[in-house]
Amino acid sequence: PQRRGSKERLGDKPIENDDKIGADWVEWLMPICKDAYRVLKDDSVAYFFSGFNSYYYYYYCLLECGFTIKANIIWVKDNFGLGYHFRRQYEQILVAFKGEPPTPTKAMSDVIFDKEVNGFALLHSCQKPENLCRILLKQYTMDGDLVLDPFMGSGTTAVACKQEQRRFIGFEIDPKHYSTCLDRLNQNTLFNYNVLEGALCQE
Q1: Which of 4, 56, 149, 182 is the most buried if burial means most Cβ atoms within 10 Å?
Q2: Residue 86 pLDDT more than 80?
Q3: Contact (CB, 8 A) for 130 and 153
C-alpha cells in the first residue's frame, strides 16, 4: 500500500490499477499471475506483497493459475500507519510455489520484524527495505540465480540482487521511477553483503 504522507511529499501519482476492487481487481490480477506462472522455472518460488484487503484476491488468483501457497509471511514494521479504528503495522507476503522448490538449508520464521524505509529516505511511496528483500532472496536463491521483478518501483529488488550476487530482470512503466532504479544501481557504494559479512566474522 502507498504511504499517504510520503505519496504527497514525493509527488507520486496514484499507482495505476491500485484503486480496483472485487471483480475488477481479479480481472486485472489474473493475467499477471498466469504470466508469472508461465515464465517461472519449474520448482521455483514467487513472493507477493499484499495488504489485508487484497489478500483474498491474490490467494484466489494464484491458486487458479496453478501455484501452491506455501506460507503467508507477516512483515511487522517499526511504525504504524493512519486509521480511525485500526492503524496498520504489517504487510503480508504470500509465498507461492511452482512445483517443489528445494528445501532451504535453514527454515525461517514466518514473522519478520524489519524497519520501514525512513520517510525522508523514501524514493517511492511503496518502497520496501533492502534488508527485507535480502532476507527473502537468500531463502530460495543462490549466487548467480535469476530473479524477476515485474513491478520494480524504485528498484529495491534489483539493488538487493546486486548486493547478493543475483542476476535480475525488472520492469517499471513510470519514467520517474525507472530513472530512480538506474541511479540506485549505478551507485558505487553498492557492495556484496556476503563479502562484508565474511569480513565481519573474521574480525
Answers
A1: 149
A2: yes
A3: no
Q: CB count, 10 Å around CB of 11?
A: 8
Count of CB atoms within 10 A of residue 97's CB? Answer: 19
Q: What is the number of other CB atoms lying within 10 angstroms of the CB of residue 1?
A: 17
Q: What is the pTM of this model?
A: 0.82
Q: Is residue 13 classed exposed, middle or buried when 0-12, 13-18 and 19+ CB atoms within 10 A define those classes?
A: exposed
Report helix, strand or coil for 8.
helix
β 146-149/111-113 pair status: unpaired
DSSP string, 131-179: HHHHHHHHHH--TT-EEEES--TTTHHHHHHHHTT-EEEE----HHHHH
Let me know: does 130 contact 159? Beta carbons within 8 Å.
yes
Look over the chain and give the mean of its residue pLDDT values, rounded to a whole number.
Answer: 84
Helical spans, DSSP H, in the chain: 4-10, 22-39, 55-64, 130-140, 156-163, 175-185, 193-202
